[in-house]
């Protein structure tokens, strides 16, 4: 780890508009600093900022510094969000990690985290060795010739499914962005991962009220039962009445470069019966546009099966 200057602003106004790197729970930033993947000269510890609080009175609102474990345990939080949080990391990390930091965590691609290897996210223009190298855990959706790394967050998948928004605060004031639009596909500039402007800070996460989101779930498929990133995951919320699907929200993770909303699956579900056969038919379009690599072609069928499993659980 390289030397850096540490400051601790106590107001949002003092924090935003600076060139420093924000530190909340530190569970991602400190790891990357130890590896010299990130080498900020100035780090701002923002834990004293007034960015806490959980409000479930009309939809959901989370202060960006709320810890993942506290949100997961809070009454009134939709099951898909709680389950996504509880499937993340370990209990110790969930007790430290903030919701804002989780949404901004960097990819777990091994090439990104190894400074001896080229990586377009870390050093633009250096190349993407994962395209022809070890790519079992990489993306099949939303990829480009510059990057095939998956997005790491579990809860971001659930929040994208529920049309969540993030409030961003910078030197020029506040703005609100849909989380689905906040994340950027890699294209030719994979180093630009989101719509966060220099000096801006996520200050709040807002989930619109969705009364039927109590019927929701998050399914995560991984190589081991805990402390592991997703090979594939699915966040599902279903409005089922008289054994028919009135409305649906479906998003997936572990298979795409950003949290991936499956609008075609949602359209196929609406108006249809809440049966396994109908779920299988809807999930058949889940992998449309996929571009598998040499070692991750299995994710095409895994994606479809994971969506079906989540739909069955969500409809139960």
Protein traits:
FAD-bd_PCMH_sub2; Mopterin_DH_FAD-bd; 5-stranded antiparallel beta sheet; 316 residues; 4-stranded antiparallel beta sheet; Enolase-like, domain 1; alpha+beta; 12 strands; 20% strand
Description:
The protein is of the alpha+beta class and 316 residues long. The chain has a domain at 213-315: Enolase-like, domain 1. The protein has twelve helices and twelve strands. The protein has helices at residues 12-15, 29-34, 68-73, 79-86, 91-96, 99-103, 110-113, 155-161, 179-182, 263-269, 276-283, 298-315, and strands at 5-7, 21-23, 42-45, 54-55, 60-63, 165-170, 173-178, 201-207, 216-221, 232-241, 244-253, 260-261. Strands 4-5-8-6-7 form a five-stranded antiparallel sheet. Strand 11 (244-253) and strand 12 (260-261) form a beta hairpin. Helix 4 (79-86) packs antiparallel against helix 8 and helix 11 (276-283) packs antiparallel against helix 12 (298-315). The longest helix is centred in the last third of the chain and has 18 residues, at 298-315. The relative contact order is 0.13. The mean pLDDT is 97.
């Amino acid at each position: 780890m390289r030397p850096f200057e540490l400051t601790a602003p106590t107001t949002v106004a003092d924090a935003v508009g600076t060139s420093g790197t924000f530190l909340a729970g530190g569970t991602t930033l400190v790891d990357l600093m130890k590896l010299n993947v990130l080498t900020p000269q100035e780090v701002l510890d923002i834990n004293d900022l007034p960015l806490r609080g959980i409000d479930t009175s009309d939809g959901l609102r989370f202060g960006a510094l709320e810890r993942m474990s506290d949100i997961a345990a809070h009454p009134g939080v939709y099951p898909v969000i709680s389950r996504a949080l509880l499937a993340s990391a370990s209990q110790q990390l969930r007790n430290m990690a903030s919701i804002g930091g989780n949404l901004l965590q960097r990819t777990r691609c091994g090439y990104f985290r190894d400074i001896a290897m080229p990586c377009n996210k870390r050093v633009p223009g250096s190349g993407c060795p994962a395209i022809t190298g070890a790519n079992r855990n990489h993306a099949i959706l939303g990829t480009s010739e510059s990057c095939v790394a998956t997005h790491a967050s579990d809860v971001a998948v659930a929040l994208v499914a529920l049309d969540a928004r993030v409030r961003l605060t910078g030197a020029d004031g506040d703005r609100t962005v849909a989380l689905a639009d906040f994340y950027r596909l890699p294209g030719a500039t994979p180093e630009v991962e989101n719509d966060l402007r220099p000096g801006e800070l996520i200050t709040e996460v807002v989930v619109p009220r969705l009364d039927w989101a109590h019927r929701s779930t998050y399914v995560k498929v991984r190589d081991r039962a805990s402390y592991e990133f997703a090979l594939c995951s699915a966040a599902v919320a279903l409005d089922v009445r008289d054994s028919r699907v009135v409305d649906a929200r479906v998003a997936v993770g572990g298979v795409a470069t950003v949290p991936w909303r499956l609008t075609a699956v949602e359209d196929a579900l609406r108006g249809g019966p809440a049966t396994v056969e109908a779920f299988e038919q809807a999930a058949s379009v889940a992998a449309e546009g996929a571009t598998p690599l040499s070692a991750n072609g299995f994710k095409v069928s895994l994606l479809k099966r994971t969506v079906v499993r989540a739909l069955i659980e969500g409809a139960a």
